[in-house]
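wait is this the right file?? whatever heres the structure
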């Protein structure tokens, strides 16, 4: 009986290979699985093969009979005759890898490639109060493969963290606000684990004396800041206005000085212009008074002295 099955299997394989006109290779489909759970290949077949990335046959399906050829899988892989889907059960991290579902449709051999990644369970994240004065909370979780830790507020992501070193735990801080509900989510591509931080959880830190004193100090600091800005701004405007007034006064004094100089020039006596060429200049008489000198001992005074006025000349 076993020999007949082998012969039938070989005849089917070679018959399908010879009848195929071409071979299609669709793109790789990624499937995330969780350790201990199951996954299903999203393709329906009635005849075909399940192979690994080395193209070794894991299981064969022929005429409604599903036979497992790899002992590693045992009952680990199944085909459902009603739905015609193939599934992996009781997944292990060692099941991660590339798998090929090979079948024939319309005399065409088709290969569908699937990349399966099996992840470990993500622990529940732990939320604790980190700083009572600022109402800051900490969310932490044990790290794992592709694990992300995220804070959400009303389905809006606030911040997140991850670390490729699985030996380092993940932690993330959040400063809570009044009347808000938060969620800390630890996740990998296969599963999410959520811990809520409700409004009722944060009331005791908002009502604490330390938080009230800090809130009051923030208000006082804000008032003082506004007061200082007002004083500095007023002083700046005062100095600016003062400098502007001084400038205006200086400009007014300068204009008055210029007006006085022009008025003085208006009182200046008239100086006759020089005669133009071809005209006779006016004559001016110059008079001088001759004073007598004392007589000399050896000469007559009448030859040396005179009196009265005399015209020296005319210009």
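ok assuming it is, sequence goes like this
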């Amino acid at each position: 009986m076993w020999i007949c099955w082998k012969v039938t299997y070989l005849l089917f394989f070679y018959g399908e290979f010879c009848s195929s006109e071409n071979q299609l290779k669709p793109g790789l489909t990624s499937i995330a699985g969780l350790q201990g759970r199951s996954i299903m290949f999203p393709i329906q077949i009635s005849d075909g093969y399940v192979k690994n990335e080395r193209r070794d046959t894991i299981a064969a399906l022929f005429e409604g009979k599903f036979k497992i050829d790899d002992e590693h899988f045992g009952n680990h892989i199944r085909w459902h005759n009603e739905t015609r889907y193939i599934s992996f059960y009781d997944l292990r991290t060692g099941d991660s890898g590339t798998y090929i579902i090979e079948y024939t449709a319309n005399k065409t051999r088709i290969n569908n490639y699937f990349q399966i990644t099996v992840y470990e369970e993500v622990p529940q994240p732990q939320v604790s109060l980190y700083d009572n004065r600022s109402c800051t909370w900490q969310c932490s979780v044990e790290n794992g493969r592709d694990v992300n830790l995220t804070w959400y507020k009303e389905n809006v992501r606030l911040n997140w963290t991850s670390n490729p070193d699985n030996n380092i735990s993940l932690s993330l801080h959040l400063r809570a606000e009044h009347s808000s509900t938060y969620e800390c989510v630890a996740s990998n591509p296969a599963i999410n684990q959520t811990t809520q931080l409700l409004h009722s959880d944060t009331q005791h830190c908002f009502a604490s004396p330390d938080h009230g004193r800090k809130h009051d100090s923030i208000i006082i600091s804000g008032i003082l800041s506004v007061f200082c800005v007002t004083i500095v701004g007023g002083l700046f405007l005062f100095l600016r206005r003062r400098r502007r007034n001084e400038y205006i006064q200086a400009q007014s004094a300068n204009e008055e000085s210029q007006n006085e100089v022009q008025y003085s020039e208006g009182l200046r006596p008239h100086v006759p212009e020089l005669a133009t060429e071809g005209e006779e200049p006016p004559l001016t008489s110059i008079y001088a008074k001759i004073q007598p000198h004392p007589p000399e001992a050896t000469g007559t005074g009448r030859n040396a002295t005179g009196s009265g006025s005399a015209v020296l000349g005319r210009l």
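Residues 232 and 238 are 10 Å apart (CA to CA). so i think its the right one actually
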